[in-house]
């Protein structure tokens, strides 16, 4: 069995690649290294790696023909709400057009895939008051990022239904853990907090810290992705999260305790397009056998030990 992972050198992608290798799959990675780093992949010498952009349509078509993957995990993305507001056209070309082009090629060539998994985001739910978010909760995408993710989900699911392709979508909530790049202001808040605590840098807090998120440790995310693949699920959407709502203030406090360091905080106004509260109902994933192995505290401890 062969798996193609786009964005396979990125934070979540590289953990997935290592897991797929350990499950005995042949793994092919495409990554333009815009945020990713090949060193993230532990099993580098057992993986076929292409440093390319998923927007290179010719290249992607040739790759699919030559490699004939059974599983495709589409993780390549401009993975930030704030970044999508700065660069909406570029975000769109990666987060929607590149995925669409691949689906279209699979359809036209009848490529015999076993599962096409698209990674969407909790951003699609926006700021509607119903909590926790279920996969069939109303959506209200507020940013170019969220709109692209939601529209692409619809393409992925419609292609699945209309052309009988085994497609599935997942909505990541706030994933954290080793390998998350802290270098961009759009990086995950926990990678930035880790960098600040480690290097005695001031942390910029956007808003008053009362915004909430559902933080999930990357190993649990990989568990979820692999369960979805093993279950041969198609035409479905799954939340991938921990199922707990935590405010930014509370995560800062917990992380300060874990690290035994007190953080210097600089306050800034909240970011545009931001979601105020976010927490998932993970019941659908639990039905597939998902159990969260990492609480926020144990996940942060593990992350801090390895940092
Ligand atoms: C996450 C995802 C994004 C999208 C979104 C869906 C990451 C990196 N991004 O965005 O791709 O799926 O969820 O809702 O996982 N913050 C600070 N200071 C900082 C950085 C962040 O205060 O230096 C705040 C930020 O304004 C936000 C919270 O921390 O309120 C979490 O920020 P984030 O960038 O980690 O994730 P989020 O939820 O904006």
Can you give me a brief rundown of this structure?
The chain has helices at 11-22, 57-67, 81-86, 88-109, 144-162, 189-199, 218-230, 248-259, 283-287, 296-306; strands spanning 2-6, 26-31, 47-51, 71-74, 115-121, 167-172, 174-176, 203-206, 212-213, 215-217, 236-240, 246-247, 265-268.
Give the helix/strand layout.
Blueprint: E1 2-6, H1 11-22, E2 26-31, E3 47-51, H2 57-67, E4 71-74, H3 81-86, H4 88-109, E5 115-121, H5 144-162, E6 167-172, E7 174-176, H6 189-199, E8 203-206, E9 212-213, E10 215-217, H7 218-230, E11 236-240, E12 246-247, H8 248-259, E13 265-268, H9 283-287, H10 296-306
Parallel strand pairs: 1-2, 1-4, 2-3, 4-5, 5-6, 6-11, 7-10, 8-13
Antiparallel strand pairs: 9-12
Helix pairs in contact: 1-7, 2-4, 4-5, 8-10
Bound molecules: uridine-diphosphate-N-acetylgalactosamine.
CATH superfamily of the largest domain: NAD(P)-binding Rossmann-like Domain
* Major sheet description: 7 strands, parallel
How many helix segments? 10
pLDDT < 50 stretches:
none
CATH architecture of the largest domain: 3-Layer(aba) Sandwich
Q: What order do the helices and strands follow?
A: EHEEHEHHEHEEHEEEHEEHEHH
Question: What ligands does this structure carry?
Answer: uridine-diphosphate-N-acetylgalactosamine
Secondary-structure-derived class:
alpha/beta
Instruction: Give the end-to-end Cα distance, rounded to a whole number of Å.
Output: 34 Å
What spatial form do the alpha-carbon principal axes imply? globular
Percent range for helical residues? 25-40%
Query: What integer is the average pLDDT?
Result: 96
Query: What kind of assembly state do the chains in view correspond to?
Result: single chain
CATH class of the largest domain: Alpha Beta
Number of strands: 13
Strand content: 15-25%
- The CATH topology of the largest domain comes to Rossmann fold
Spatial order of the strands forming the largest sheet: 3-2-1-4-5-6-11
